[in-house]
Amino acid sequence: MASRSIAIIGAGPGGLTLARLLQLHDLPCSIYEAEENREERNQGGTLDLQPRAGQRALKEAGLLEEFRKYSRPEGEKDKIVLYDGTVLWDENEQDNHGPEELTNRPEIDRTQLRQILLDSVKPESIRWSKKLVRVEAVQGDQYNLHFEDSVEEGFDLVVGADGAWSKVRRLLSAATPFYSGITVVELWARDVEKANPALSKYVGDGSMFMFDEGRAIISQRNGNNCIRTYACVRQPESWVKTCGIDWTQHNAAKQALLDRYFANCSSDLKHLVLDSSEGLIPRILYMLPIGYKWDTCPGVTLLGDAAHLMTPFAGVGVNLAMADALDLASELVSRKEGRVAKLFSDKHNITSAIGAYEKSMYERGEKYAQKTWHGLQAHFSATGGRERAEKIRKHAAARNVA
């Protein structure tokens, strides 16, 4: 394959994992990222990496030990409360979440994970400030990339790792994300151990959840002594603009949010919002249809959110993106190094690899999209908190018996 035959659009966890895996097997690729540099944007909160998905991809990429340096096993601890403050489950107060379980799906800050991946790829392979406008198919099953400031020509494979509003997806289908019914208001409290020890203790070492009919409050401990809180509501897609809350007025907006949608919640839950002095970012959650597919196209495919965008209510988005990257890389490498593969052209091998990859990716994506949809329905129901606590309690009991 030519040195510029593979283009990866997007330098998120999925795109970077793919690039790392390809480069380990001497498959050169170019990564195009719209951001100006690695520090331009806050990458978000914390996430867990599953052994058979994110951790497996990192192991194959030779990065598992680096991940363990920065991961937080204690971040797996869950706390679940009712809207009135009743504690249904709190692993911060229990001794039955032993070391083996704690290290199964450790948390890591998204920024730290991205830094690990960025440092692992060849610096010259990343092109920053490259905002893709469209992908053009040209004669011979090659593709030109039209950016805002330039055109890059002659790629045999274009991988869309460019997220929810993927430009690469447009080449494969007319499908676009639709509103999930849920909008989230994100807030941050920094330096909590010193500035607000009560808030720090209330959330604990991991995540705290309050699920209720049409609403939820979720708080997560991050590794930089920051707590991110998400006040979630089931409202129309236009709610951010039509609810009458002036989001530019930080304190007034927080109070209005609580008065209108969380008035009967406990004072501890309200302080998660009131004591978060930064953020106040409304995020409208979109998704692609469950089981979304497209006809295989020679030389173009998608991974991560570009392929199977879903809400965060099963916590699998980055894991799926990294599993996608591992599968796609494995298919491409096997067709580069296998004896039979060498009998065919690069274009034939790429098309064959895409077909095999997409088959497994569709199955995985549909499975977890369905799980995520069920999670959304449960989380925003009156019995959501009790059901989640009972499920965790049964899993803990099974571990103790084992």
UniProtKB/TrEMBL annotation:
**Keywords attached to this entry:** FAD, Flavoprotein, Monooxygenase, Oxidoreductase
Q: Which InterPro entries does this one have? A: FAD-bd, FAD/NAD-bd_sf, TetX_monooxygenase
Q: Which GO terms describe its molecular function?
A: FAD binding; monooxygenase activity
Which part of the chain is the FAD-binding domain? 6-338
Q: Which GO terms describe its biological process?
A: response to antibiotic
The record's section on SUPFAM superfamilies has: FAD/NAD(P)-binding domain
Q: What is this protein called?
A: FAD-binding domain-containing protein
Q: Which organism is it from?
A: Lipomyces starkeyi NRRL Y-11557
